[in-house]
Structure formats: C-alpha cells, structure tokens
Design brief:
Order of helices and strands: HEEEEH
Organism: Cuculus canorus
Helix content: 10-25%
Strand content: 25-35%
Pfam families: AKAP28 (PF14469)
Largest sheet: 4 strands, antiparallel
Number of domains: 1
Protein name: A-kinase anchor protein 14
Distance between the termini: 43 Å
GO molecular function: kinase activity; protein kinase A regulatory subunit binding
Radius of gyration: 16 Å
Keywords: Kinase, Transferase
Length: 132
Amino acid sequence: TKYVIKNIQWTTGNNFTVERGQQQIEELISTWKVHESWLHWSEFLQEEELEHSKRYHYRVCWSIPTRRKPIPRATASVYFVIEISKTKPATSPVEVFFTLESCRLIHRPEQCQFTEKWLKDIIENKIIAMER
C-alpha cells in the first residue's frame, strides 16, 4: 500500500505574514501522526534577507510532560524555514522546509512523512548524554 504524504495549501508570497507563517506551521503539524501525549509550542525566531529570497525561521519545541514529571527532562526542537522568492511571481506559494534539532537533513513537507520516532530519538539521546 502506498502511503499518502499529507501537506497543506501554503500561502502565497504576497499574502505572507510572520503570524500567518506560524499558523500554517501549526496547521501542518496537525496533520502529523504524533501521540496526544506530545505537547508543543512554536515561536518565530528571525527574518533572514538573502539575495534572491527572504527566509523566516521558526522553532517548534516538543515534550511529553506527565503528572509525575510536569517539567520534562528533555525537549526536541524542529526548525522550520519559510522562504519567499524574490524572483518568482508574488502569487507563487512560499517554500517550506524543516530540520530536526542536531540533524543536517532538510525535509520538505510535501516529500516526507514526519515520524514521532525522530522526536523520541532526540530526547533519548539527550537523556543518555545527561546521565553520562
């Protein structure tokens, strides 16, 4: 069976705002299959001016708080970039990609399926490092 990658309809360059970008990241995250015990919050980090585009950087921080440990020992961050081209028409959709904390691999929402295991691996590695 072929797995369908879920994506959303991204806004166009001329309709983009920092707030709209954050809303759309939240909309994308709502399509991800993660257990309800995972909680997250998102924030805008910075705007980056490049020669042919403008990039907007965001961070989404994930954790699993529990009754016994409401403050988790470790968190996992996913970093998003929304890029608006200066060479394409303003009516073109923005480009979106994300990376996981401590990883170099760049993911595009339309080309990969996010997996909860990535978050678990980051947190497990941090806890192992703290215990050493």
